[in-house]
Amino acid sequence: MDSTPMPEPLRRAIHQLVSEAVANCQEVLRYTEPDQAHTWKRMTLYRATDAADTMDMVAMLIAAYCERTGMASHTLQSYLQVGQQAIRAQGTDEEDRSHVAGLMGETLSYEAMRAPTNRMRYHRGQRQAEQAQRPEDDPGKLFTEAVLHGLKAKLCDDVDSLDSYLPPQMATMARRVAEALEVPEPATA
Hints:
Layout: H1 8-30, H2 40-68, H3 73-80, H4 94-104, H5 110-113, H6 116-133, H7 139-155, H8 162-165, H9 168-180
Helix pairs in contact: 1-2, 1-7, 4-6, 7-9
């Protein structure tokens, strides 16, 4: 196993791309809020695909480096998990429609229920719909969302806007995150 660290230029490029992807993920969350009713469909899809494309770029950049340094093709394909790649250009499939049916409380056709993956996705949607009915949220999810909202608000110097579109608990957590991101004064020697 190669134990050389990632080259600094590659590391910096990856950090930049991951930061861009995180910003897009935060915007996906932002466009789910009630005050975005007029644009949520278009903007959540734009930003989600932007984030996915950026992370694909990260993977391909690392893969190109691995290829350049002599990694075997079969190893690279294994690490890229190429079998998991879903092509968005093909559009939604029966599994996606089954998942939405579960989320929306609709029944699934007999034909769709015959496929195990459709049943699995349908039941996953049902569980997610049930979880959405409970006011308590997963602490890890709340924390992640608060960090993303707080980071974006801090970067845009718009911390006060958090109260206008987030539920009170989330706004408070996001504000704390933004406050924790205060840039310390440089040390004087």
